[in-house]
Each structure stands twice: as C-alpha cells, then as structure tokens.
Description:
The complex is a heterodimer of chains A (158) and B (78).
Chain A: E1 7-10, H1 16-23, E2 30-37, E3 41-42, E4 45-54, H2 56-73, E5 78-84, E6 86-89, E7 93-101, H3 104-121, E8 124-130, E9 133-136
Parallel strand pairs in A: 1-5
Antiparallel strand pairs in A: 2-7, 3-4, 4-6, 4-8, 5-7, 8-9
Helix pairs in contact in A: 2-3
Chain B: E1 2-5, H1 8-14, E2 18-21, E3 25-27, H2 28-38, E4 49-52, E5 55-56, E6 62-64, E7 68-72
Parallel strand pairs in B: 1-7
Antiparallel strand pairs in B: 1-2, 3-6, 4-5, 4-7
Amino acid sequence: MGEKRNYFVTEEPLPTEELIQSVIRPEAGAVTTFIGTVRELTEGKRTLSLTYEAYKPMAEKKLAQLGAELEAKYEGTKVAMAHRIGKLEISETAVVIAVSSPHRDASFKASREAIERIKEFVPIWKKEHWEDGEMWIGDQLENVSYKDQKKPGEEESP
Amino acid sequence: MIKVLFFAGMKEQAGTAEYELQQKEIAVAEIRAKVRAEFPGVTGTDRAMVAINEEFTNEDDTARTGDVVAFIPPVSGG
C-alpha cells in the first residue's frame, strides 16, 4: 500500500495527475501525456458506451515490459501507463500514458510508440454498445491473424 | 490439471471464463484442438494468441500441470 505503481489496470477513474507526477523528476525537461478517451462516433456509428475487459495480471505485466523497453530505447525517458476497465461513458478516459525525458523529442516518440504497441498486444478488449446492438471489437474481423507471425510485442527486426 | 482462461467474445461464446484440462502436459496446438472440440460454438480459437503463465507462446510450446493458459483474441485496448 502507498507504493506508487507506474503500470496498472483499474476499474477506477484514472489518476492522470498522479501518473504525470510519477514521471516528473529533476533531470526531466519535458513531459508528454497521451490520454485516450471514449469517442462517440466511429465511421458514422454512434457509440453509447464502451465496456473494457482485461486479463489484468498479464496486461499489467505487458504494460511494465513495454515501459521498460521504451525507457531503454529512448534514452533518459521515464514512463507511466494505466488503462481503465469496466463500463466507460463517452469522453471518459480509457488510457493514460505519461513520459518524461531531458529533451522533448524522446518523450513524443516514446508516447506515440507506447499507444501503438498497447493496441497491438496488451490483453485488453473493448465492447462497443450501440443503439442497435453490441460487439466485442477486434474479435469479429477475420483480417487479423497472429498465426505464423512473430509473437506480439516483439520488436521488428532492424 | 491445466487451467484455461477465456476473455471477451470467446468468454461469452464459451459461456464460461475458465475450464480445466486434465492433461499433465500438452502442446499449444493440441490445446487449440481440445478447446475447439469442447466448445464448438466458440469462434477464433485458431486466430487467438495463446499465453502460458502470462507470456505469449509458439505453437510447439507446452503447458504443464499447474500452468495457466489463456486465449488472447485480437486485442482492442487503448
């Protein structure tokens, strides 16, 4: 208890300011914050709410691994990431990524890469609720196959 | 005994979040076949990634008694 966690999944509203504070330190001269929010319209279809589900222990572990990888790749960065699960209304915050670095370039790059990679392999799923139905996203499209590919989360070869 | 976890759409289709395999050890490819046979209504058993003890696997990796296997359908967080 009381220990600051930099990588977590929670049913509670995300503590954005705490995540930012957790990466601020004297050697940092820049902090970027990416906040993902629930969008109402996707390709003209109106979303009423979203439900996120996670394989929580694995998702937290993968967020921590991703953070460590980004900190190694972008020198001097410090990363914190959290994802909310459960039912979220329009405009509520689903994900927060905070990155600090001595100079701004590393923070921008690391936070961009962080969100792209969360969407690739961190075990979190969303269910869209519409006026006329609901569906788990990512799970109905037949165009995503992981078979015969590298394991998700592994870096592209240089 | 090996615990198998389902999430999201697969969990809804299976009607359960988990079930147990009695094998002492079993390869990932064989786990997929078992799940297909046990839950014919579940789609995406081939497409999902399989994790053992919270790490992604290859088809020839093996789960052993006490391990936790999870089917990870294409993710949609963020």
